[in-house]
Design brief:
The complex is a heterodimer. Helix content of chain A is 26%, strand content 20%. By secondary structure, chain A is an alpha+beta fold. In chain A, a hairpin with a 2-residue loop joins strand 9 (289-296) and strand 10. The radius of gyration of chain A is 26 Å and the shape is globular. By secondary structure, chain B is mainly β. In chain B, the strands form two sheets. A 16-stranded antiparallel sheet of chain B has the order 1-2-3-4-5-6-7-8-9-10-11-14-15-16-17-18. A two-stranded antiparallel ribbon of chain B has the order 12-13. The N and C termini of chain B lie far apart (61 Å). Classes of the chains: A alpha+beta, B mainly beta. Chain A binds chain B through residues 10-11, 13-15, 17-19, 50-55, 58-59, 63, 66-67, 70-71, 202-207, 324, 330-332, 336, 339-340, 343-344, 347-348, 351-352, and chain B through 1, 3, 5-14, 17-18, 20-21, 24-25, 28-29, 31-39, 41-42, 255-259, 312, 314-318, 320, 322, 324.
Chain lengths: 554, 382
């Protein structure tokens, strides 16, 4: 064998033999499903992680793509999420807290989100400590109560756009289960601003110097005054704890002993793609995350936050979204290749339709939105590892939002034009329904399995069909089939009869002999059978009960 | 296989990439943490405030990598005089220095007077012989040194049309080429007009231009034409008296939002007067990135040249256009010698890397009966 071929063979063998990263997924087992993944043990303070937004782009666009290309097993079958519990849900952790997906939140809870009862005291004074030089000009303040906030303004030509998007997205991310900062719409008189003696600014030459009144005026001069003399802004409360830099959407944080599930295999980060697509949060990236070293019940650990949603919904922070947003990466090798190889015959259909109806909303639409094809600004590795089961989990969260809840979240943006709020609410509802329809059908949509054993009758395994329940298909259009694994032998597939719909008969045999029931569903007219859901059964006090279920990938 | 070993094996092909990534990350972190981007912007601003602009390229294919600086002032001496002094130097020892004073005699250059001087030294100019029957293997090179001074008076109308009359004195020296890989031109072509003593010429005449483009820096729609007619007289005993006239027209047809068909027609003529001659280095030429791709630079020289460039441009990314092109051209001793059968063909593909100021870099791969040619230039020809 020639040396090159020998090396290639060794590499291929190594590739196939390489083990999966640590998998924590709870296998169906006796006992209740894990509801809390306790990753909040006391740890020493990690080092602040420095990051470069330019490198993040290169890393995600080039290096990580190359790395994934060499991950041969991934091309055959994506790994299942590592932290789903026995009933295919994500336990609470320092990353995620089940909220609206587990129990409907009240409209008040949705509106409040992560906010403590009040924002910065509008009476002032607000002591300005630093002018920020990010995409959106603003400054840091400390209010009369000593609370620290970042203040950001809307672009002059698009009042209410970025601040509105930030607040609405914050509420919906929070209700979905993610950790978010406290973001407030505030109106204040510029006269309450006072420059701290040690306030600094990085000027346009890149040099840090003392902040002056002119620096403040430069920012405020571009902000329109409301009729009552106040200005509108977004106030983002400083997160409690010590900032330790952003988290990555892949790998582990080596100096955090609590972090032992590779981020790309965390379901809440994989499924975030579906929720970000709903909110059109194209700027979701490492730079817009933050690990905070917090103290809780005497323990110190890292809590992981999503931050900065000024580019969500119809906003691109300074401008409305371009027509590319959500459809193409900034540097999209696939789209470029298609255009290149087709000599331009491949045209982007979304490139012709941008219409901005409300300046306060920017550009977001639902007609061309495709839940399966939505893309952020550049690839996110966790998103690329998403399976149909992860997407289904996230789609259930999106579908858990009622029209009233969406409207309540939109109302927190305090849009001055009610028609704009109506429009945004309608778009979010339409995008929600598209997400539900697409991912539910793709994963099958059968869920909520339980065992019912009435006296004198053989036990049955009822379930819900979320596709039919949400009206994405009529019950008559749905066909279900099942098979039973008993004593290591599978029965043939059997269609459920019309009478027994949504309940698998488990037969009159002794319960312990039934070990696994596999269920599939399809649309009567055309679609193929859905991925299998394998429901694991066991005995407890001589009664049959569900140990858990595993949803296969599409 | 032990898990750690297996993982290491999988990552072996990625080691160079990982190393590159680590270095890049450190560099980009430094860029951001030290506000280097803002500092760079400031340096650019500082240079502009001090009437300086860095220059890259712009001296043509085969000249090497050129760097330079442009000293400028749009309000020279506070008299609304435009002043420019571009200075360029390339790795192949090409030099170009010039000065220009622009006087706006009526507002918005409705009547203007431009005075200009220039020195250029081009030590490795290629020459393959005259006519379209010249051979690629006859490649020679010569050194051209050119000093000129001139004035142009004219009018600009609405930023679209321009008409002017110009006069220019040119003194040119020709000597042996500095590219040792090829013979010097005088060794292979000893009898060429202008080769022995160079020339001293006075050139005067009219030119006109009309532009109707949507974006002159990166046109997608519209057209533009430029025409000229000049008399050229020898100022010494050489009989270099001839006419220099021609027309260049380019048009752009949008084929949808991201696609454009671009066409350029060039007709370049010299015609002897009073039994005069034309110095060979002032003859029209074809070949190279600016004229006919697929052929070497300066491949065909003769008194008359026709050229048609057709480009299909497709924007594959915000900053990149993909281009398919064909170039058809021929040179002839007399205009009557042109014929459809004698057109030479080059074709190929290329990429245009664009900035907000238009095309910044251009890569072309051309193919012709003389093989493959690769071109890398800093500025577009059309």
């Amino acid at each position: 064998m020639k040396p090159f071929r020998a090396l290639l063979a060794i590499w291929l063998i190594g590739t196939v033999a390489a083990p999966s990263p640590a998998v924590a997924r709870q296998k169906p087992s006796p006992g209740p499903p894990i509801e809390l993944d306790f990753d909040m043990n006391d740890i020493p303070e990690p080092k602040v992680r420095r990051n470069s937004q330019y490198y993040d782009f290169f890393d995600a666009t080039f290096f990580q793509q190359a790395k994934q290309a060499f991950d041969i097993p991934r091309h055959v079958r994506k790994r299942p999420a590592a932290n789903a519990n026995a009933v295919d849900q994500v336990p609470d952790s320092s990353w995620f807290t089940n909220r609206n997906g587990r129990r409907p939140m009240s409209l008040e809870e949705i509106k409040r989100g992560s906010n403590t009862p009040d924002g910065p005291d509008p009476q002032g004074p607000w002591i300005v400590s630093r002018k920020t030089s990010g995409i959106t000009p603003g400054f840091r303040i400390r209010d009369a109560r000593g609370q620290r906030y970042g203040i950001k303004f809307d672009p002059p030509d698009y009042p209410e756009m970025a601040s509105g998007a930030e607040v609405v997205a914050t509420k919906l991310y929070h209700a979905s289960g993610y950790n978010t900062p406290e973001n407030y719409i505030v109106r204040f008189r510029p006269e309450i601003l006072q420059i701290a003696p040690d306030a600094t600014v990085v000027d346009w030459r890149g040099a840090e110097r003392r902040m002056t009144a002119k620096d403040l005026d430069d920012v405020l001069s571009k902000v329109p005054r409301l009729p009552d003399g106040t200005v509108r802004a977004l106030a983002s409360k400083w997160l409690s704890g010590k900032p330790q830099g952003p988290f990555r959407y892949y790998g582990l944080r080596q100096d955090d002993p609590n972090d032992w599930i590779p981020h790309e295999h965390r379901r809440e980060l994989r499924g975030l793609r579906v929720i970000a697509s709903w909110l059109n949060d194209n700027d979701i990236r490492e730079q817009n995350t933050l690990d905070m070293y917090v103290t809780q019940d005497g323990r110190r650990f890292l809590r992981h936050y999503l931050i900065d949603f000024g580019s969500a919904l119809g906003s691109e922070t300074l401008f409305p979204n371009t027509d590319r947003v959500g459809f193409e990466y900034i540097l999209d090798a696939g789209e470029i290749s298609k255009a290149f190889l087709s000599l331009g015959a491949h045209n982007r259909p979304w490139g012709h339709r941008r219409t901005i109806l409300y300046k306060s909303i920017g550009y977001i639409e639902s007609e061309m939105f495709h839940p399966g094809r939505w893309k952020p600004n550049y690839p996110i590795i966790a998103f690329e590892n998403m399976t149909s089961a992860d997407a289904y989990w996230a789609a259930k969260i999106v579908m858990s939002f009622t029209d009233e809840q969406i409207r309540a979240a939109v109302d927190t943006a305090e849009y001055s034009d009610p028609a704009a709020a109506d429009y945004l609410s309608r778009i979010l509802m339409e995008r929600r329904d598209k997400i539900g329809r697409y991912w539910f059908i793709r994963a099958g949509g059968v869920d909520n399995f339980r065992v019912v054993a009435d006296a004198g009758r053989p036990p049955v395994l009822p379930f819900d069909d979320l596709v039919a329940r949400h009206g994405f298909a009529t019950p008559a259009e749905r066909v279900y089939r099942y098979r039973v694994l008993r004593d290591e032998r599978r029965t043939p597939w059997q269609e459920l009869s019309q009478e027994a719909r949504l309940a698998v008969p488990l037969g009159a045999t002794e319960p312990p002999s039934v070990q696994v029931v596999e269920v599939q569903v399809r649309d009567r007219k055309h679609s193929p059978w859905s991925p299998t859901v394998a429901i694991h059964l066991g005995e407890e006090e001589r009664r049959l009960r569900i140990l858990g279920w595993v949803r296969a990938d599409k | 296989m032990e898990s750690g070993t297996a993982r290491k094996i999988v990552r072996v092909p990625l080691y160079p990439l990982i190393g590159l990534g680590k270095g890049l990350e450190k560099g980009l972190l430094a860029l951001e943490e030290h506000n280097l981007r803002q500092k760079l912007n400031y340096w650019q601003y500082w240079l502009q405030q001090h009437h300086l602009q860095p220059l890259t390229g712009g001296m043509g294919t085969g000249t090497g990598f050129a760097l330079g600086i442009r000293i400028f002032d749009d309000d020279f001496l506070h008299r609304r005089i435009r002043f420019e002094m571009p200075l360029r130097y390339s790795t192949n020892n090409y030099q170009q220095f010039g000065t220009m004073l622009g006087f706006s005699l009526l507002r918005d250059r409705k009547l203007f007077l431009d005075l200009a001087t220039q020195y250029c030294s081009r030590p490795q100019e290629d020459f393959f012989g005259l006519g379209d029957g010249s051979f690629e293997n006859d490649r020679t090179n010569y050194k051209l040194q050119d000093r000129n001074a001139g004035a142009v008076i004219g009018t600009e109308i609405g930023g679209r049309a321009r008409f002017d009359f110009g006069v220019r004195y040119t003194n040119t020296n020709v000597s042996g080429g500095e590219d040792d890989r090829f013979p010097s031109t005088e060794q292979k072509f000893p009898i060429l007009a202008g080769l022995a003593r160079g020339s001293s010429l006075l050139r005067y005449g009219f030119s006109a231009m009309y532009t109707a483009l949507d974006n002159p820096l990166d046109p997608k729609k519209g057209f533009r034409w430029r025409g000229r007619f000049y008399w050229v007289d020898s100022l010494n005993s050489d009989n270099f008296d001839f006419y220099d006239y021609g027309l260049v027209a380019d048009g752009y047809v949008p084929l949808g939002r991201r696609r454009t068909l671009a066409v350029r027609l060039v007709a370049d003529f010299r015609q002897e007067r009073d039994a005069g001659q034309i110095p060979f280095y002032l003859l029209p030429y074809l070949g190279g990135s600016r004229t006919m791709r697929g052929f070497r630079e300066f491949r065909f020289y003769d008194a008359n040249a026709l050229l048609v460039n057709i480009e299909y441009r497709h924007q594959v990314w915000k900053f990149v256009d993909f281009v398919l092109f064909t170039d058809q051209g021929q040179v002839a001793r007399e205009p009557g010698d042109f014929s459809f059968e004698r057109f030479r063909t080059g074709y190929g593909a290329g990429l245009r890397v664009k900035s907000l100021r238009g095309v910044a870099l251009r890569f072309d791969v051309g193919r012709s009966s003389e093989g493959w040619r690769f071109y890398f230039t800093f500025s577009p020809e059309f």
